[in-house]
Amino acid sequence: MLEAIQTLEGHTDRVWTLAWNPDGTLLASSGADKTIRLWAKEGDKWNCVSILTGSHNKSIRSLSWSPCGTYLASASFDSTVCVWKRSSFGNWSAVVNLEGHESEVKCVAWSADGFYLASCGRDRKIWIWERATDDMDEFEASENWDCSDVKEDHSKDVKHIVWHPQHPILVSCSYDDTVKFFHQKEGDWTCYETLTAHKSTVWSADFSPCGQYLVTCSDDKTVRIWKNHAHDKLPEVEENSWKCISVIQGYHARSIYNVSWSKVDNVIASASGDNSLAIYRMDTKENTFICSDKSSQSHDCDVNCVSWHPRQSSLLASGSDDFKIKLWKYDNEA
User: How many Cβ atoms sit within 10 Å of the Cβ of residue 168?
Assistant: First the structure.
């Protein structure tokens, strides 16, 4: 059962994205109002504890935390990526702006080891940045970045990127209806696999915690689950190793914009343009997924993003065109 437990208000335009910091003590949100808001739990309620402004002059489309939780990356329609640093609780400053995209940046993603930062955009390009030092404890560890590669393998806008949770493998989703996998080979980043099952724009993807499964969602109103049948051979990569094992459909009436795979449980949440959220639970014995709950009117407008708390399987956050963020309690036994 999915129950709304709190509404977070403060954004003055649509909420595009949500990102929990690694230990789940902060929730970052951003949107069309060009601000980033940080929310923390005070007593029984989550409250806004900081507002980051001034580094972007257009919508902030995407956020990603560094693995250490000290840095937050933001991607904007102003064609830049900004890296913010927390010097003390509630005290944040922009420490670097990464430029190179020719138009709107749609997504930014930090690799699990913190060494790479990737961004993608309307210009059909994926930029992969690498830290100038590999010591995350040094002050400048996440403030000096070099461009490792620029990929232009998609034929249309690149909507979303996500890193594998254990290995330096990057996945991208595009307006060209495909999902692509990239890895570094002899110093260059190479696309080694393309998934073509979706019939329209692929909006989002997320890995299972073990990295053996991938979930994707699309304008075709389906959620697809993929399994890596060469999982034991990672980090070596093989072509045609990802196979679709499940197609979930019939639960959303419009585009599915975002999916989130819980880091602590075998559940997936989806957010849709039909104002709803849906929850899918995995049957590990059968490798199948069933819709265990749906909130038909989760928000008053399109739901753009959904994100599970990194440590609590019962806590979920969603953001919408209605300017609001909602926190949900999920009871998988109800």
Answer: 18
User: Is 256 strand, coil or helix?
Assistant: strand
- Whether 258 and 270 have beta carbons less than 8 Å apart is answered as yes
- Of the given ranges (69-83, 229-243, 309-323), which has the lowest mean pLDDT? 229-243
Residue 186 corresponds to which tokens in the numbers above? 């002899």
Query: Which two tokens mark 302?
Result: 């399109």
Amino acid at 60: I
DSSP 8-state secondary structure symbol assigned to residue 101? -
143 vs 227, higher pLDDT: 227
Interval 118-167: pLDDT, tens: 999 999 999 999 988 654 554 444 578 999 999 999 999 999 999 999 99
Cα within 13 Å of Cα(245), Cβ side: 19
Architecture of domain 2-330: 7 Propeller (2.130)
Its pTM stands at 0.94
Instruction: Give the pLDDT band of residue 238 (cuts 50, 70, 90).
Output: confident
Contacts 24+ apart (CB under 8 A), 94-103: 94/52, 94/54, 94/55, 95/71, 95/142, 95/143, 96/143, 96/144, 96/145, 97/55, 98/127, 98/129, 98/145, 100/127, 100/147, 100/150, 101/125, 101/127, 103/79
Q: 279 with 251: CB under 8 angstroms?
A: no
Residue 140: the pLDDT is 47
Q: Which percentage of the chain shows pLDDT scores above 70? A: 94
Q: What is the DSSP string of 106-164?
A: EEEEE-TTSSEEEEEETTS-EEEEEES-S-TTSTTTTT-EEEEEEE---SS-EEEEEE-
Answer yes or no: is pLDDT of 235 > 70.
no
Strand order in the sheet with 26-31: 15-20, 26-31, 36-42, 45-52
**Distance from first CA to last CA of the chain, Å, rounded?**
5
- Show me where the domains of the chain are located: 2-330
